[in-house]
Amino acid sequence: MGKIALLFPGQGSQTVGMGKELAVSDQKVADIFSEADKALQFPLSSVIFEGPKEKLTLTTNAQPALLTTSIAILQKFTEFNIKPDFVAGHSLGEYTALVAANALSFTDGVQIVHKRGEFMEDAVPHGQGTMAAILGMDREKLTEITEKVTETVGSVQLANLNCPGQIVISGTKDGVDKACELAKENGARRAIPLEVSGPFHSRLMEPASNRLHKLLTTVNIRNAEIPVISNVTAKPVQDAEEIKQLLVQQLFSPVLWEDSIRYLLENGVDTFIEIGPGKVLTGLVKKIDRTVHTFAIFDEESINHTVRELEGGKS
């Protein structure tokens, strides 16, 4: 059997009611949701379990909600003593990965991402920045387009390099609209505007990264016990100081997700387990390499199924 990587989803994967079933049946899981409420001094768990969706979707709520739910599911999964060789998370999910690798305490993690959401919301006035998914174009060609548009129309950059033929761009509304138009003229299959509250992972996030930098100087970040694949470099990081620097850069740098998965594949990982709501990341992994084993765990049934498969030599 090859190596195992745990993957943690980012913003957009949240759903009302996520983790509730596990919290009802398992006290240790319930305690994690209570700990988040205490850390934030407001009932985040009731927003997660009951909604409304509009409230859960707010960046300041969605980020701690996803981190909390993923760690709660991980708490249940760790009872089976399956040890990962690497952890990785998509954007916000990198913080969950750092908690899983014991580089960050759960309480600190929840508080940081709540603030991170606030900094991201404040960085650009509402409606001035946006993001779009470009399908069917390679990164070199798209980089050329975004650089040209940045010079002539408005700032726009590559934000998420998710898998072959799926790249998200981010920037000013005018910049993103123009880049979408040029991408389609130059052979992109589709350009899909995304419903987001800001231009994440673009240069417009630099004001947020300055505030995050100040916040991180007050937090105890430790060396990671498990290698964490950084979104910024697509390479493992374990050193506390380096983790801190990369988290600041992450806000305005592209998420190198495809490169991260390729690094894991080249280093012997053949089993990817997504921990948290949804199956977005395992879907991207399959688009990068169809031959690997992927599991998505989000409730008791999916945890038991995954454990059975892993213990019985995967199907």
Could you explain how this protein is built, in words?
The structure is a single chain. 50% of the residues lie in helices and 17% in strands. The chain has 315 residues and is α/β, with parallel strands linked by helices. The protein has a six-stranded mixed beta sheet with strand order 8-7-2-1-9-10, sandwiched between helices. A four-stranded antiparallel beta sheet has the order 4-5-3-6.
Output the structural class: alpha/beta
Cα separation of the termini:
12 Å
In DSSP terms (H or I, runs of 4 or more residues), the helix count works out at 14
Shape type: globular
- Sheet bearing the most strands, described? 6 strands, mixed
The largest sheet has its strands arranged as 8-7-2-1-9-10
Taken in chain order, the helices and strands follow as EHHHHHEHHEHEEHEHEEHHEHEH
Uncertain residue segments: none
Report the C-alpha radius of gyration, rounded.
Answer: 19 Å
Keywords:
alpha/beta, six-stranded mixed sheet, globular
Quick synopsis:
The protein is an alpha/beta fold and 315 residues long.
Write the layout of secondary structure elements.
Elements: E1 3-8, H1 20-25, H2 27-40, H3 44-50, H4 53-57, H5 59-78, E2 86-89, H6 93-100, H7 106-123, E3 129-135, H8 139-152, E4 156-163, E5 166-172, H9 173-185, E6 190-194, H10 206-216, E7 228-229, E8 236-237, H11 240-250, H12 257-266, E9 269-275, H13 280-288, E10 293-297, H14 300-311
Parallel strand pairs: 1-2, 1-9, 2-7, 9-10
Antiparallel strand pairs: 3-5, 3-6, 4-5, 7-8
Helix pairs in contact: 2-5, 2-7, 3-5, 5-6, 5-7, 7-10, 8-9, 10-11
